[in-house]
Amino acid sequence: MKISEVEVRCCRRLPDAFDAGAFRTGDFSAFQFLAVTMKTDEGLSATTFGFAGRSAEGAGKLIADTLRPFMLGRDPRDRERAWHEFRTADRWWGHLPIYGYGPFDTLQWLLSAEAAGQPLYKYIGAYRDDVPVYGSSMILAKPEDYAKEALRAKAEGLKAYKLHTPGKDLEEDLEAHRLVREAVGPDFTLMSDPVSTFNLEQAIRFGRALEALGYYWYEEPLYDEDVHALRELTRTLEIPLVGTEVLAKHPYSIAECIATRVVDRVRADVSWTGGVTGVMKTARLAEAFGVNCEIHTSIFHPAEIVNLHCCAAVKNCDFFELLYPVEGFAFGLKDPLPIENGVAKLPSRAGLGVDLDWDDIDRCTVAIV
Ligand SMILES: [Mg+2]
């Protein structure tokens, strides 16, 4: 079986249900993403979505020019060979952004699983058939908005809620965390992700407050590459520190983070950290050190469901992350993600196991490169 065709669609989608002020930079105006399709000489075809930052056409052209010639003619089952040859090629001349290779690795896995007649997670090797889900907030306008949203998530049956706070004022961010704890009560699982907001001193102060409020984990309070300060923070606090979702070159860059406990739990996802192969390498590496790899959202549901397959194929991940409220992100798949009462159920059909919404993809396509 050989890869005979690679199509990269550059896509843009105006946010209808999505709050345009939701991103911290405030200049968010539309989702930009890639829809990447890989076909084989045996008539198989798979499509996934790729991240594209703020320029689908920019990212699409760069990635297609680099990875189409790299992929054509390969057997999609020879993923490990492609992985290592890409690592070398990327060091020598490619230097793609962290989100470049993920969709291409994912597509090789989907085609292989399809050819084997297995759902992806069974083809990888399943650990479970369903995964608990947490709602992961956007940046909201006021502290009390988080409390309202957390209550909604709890009422919908989600198993936990994570706050992304604005990061402009430490006291205001803490107030949001306090109000959420008050609203949902002492037993509901809560996490905090300030997304690289603090210096070390502030991060210690904030973390101690989270400990007093009974938060379950504390994610990326400092930039992922602030290795020394993060290690210090992990030693200082009781609450588990979580990070590494934006470090390039998983799993190699993560080895030191795990071995010297830069953080307590690592992160990986199919979009930013090398597709299914990258996630599995990082998750298995972490497992051998007794560490969890909390799989990070891949934002777009056609990639998110690949994350779900990965979640079901590892033991050391507590939750499936779902950006919330879900309606702002519910596009790209024909049917909603298979979540019932806060539990995501794995599809039983071969490959991805669900259908893409091609009418929507066609509407969003601005260029095919
Ligand atoms: Mg995060």
UniProtKB/TrEMBL annotation:
One of its GO terms (molecular function) is hydro-lyase activity. It holds the Pfam family MR_MLE_C. InterPro entries: Enolase-like_C_sf (IPR036849), Enolase-like_N (IPR029017), Enolase_C-like (IPR029065), Mandelate_racemase_C (IPR013342), RHMD-like (IPR046945). The keyword Magnesium applies. It comes from the Bacteria. GO terms for biological process: carbohydrate catabolic process. Keywords: Magnesium, Metal-binding. Residues 143-240 form the Mandelate racemase/muconate lactonizing enzyme C-terminal domain. This is L-alanine-DL-glutamate epimerase-like enolase superfamily enzyme. It comes from Chelatococcus asaccharovorans. The lineage of its organism: Bacteria, Pseudomonadati, Pseudomonadota, Alphaproteobacteria, Hyphomicrobiales.
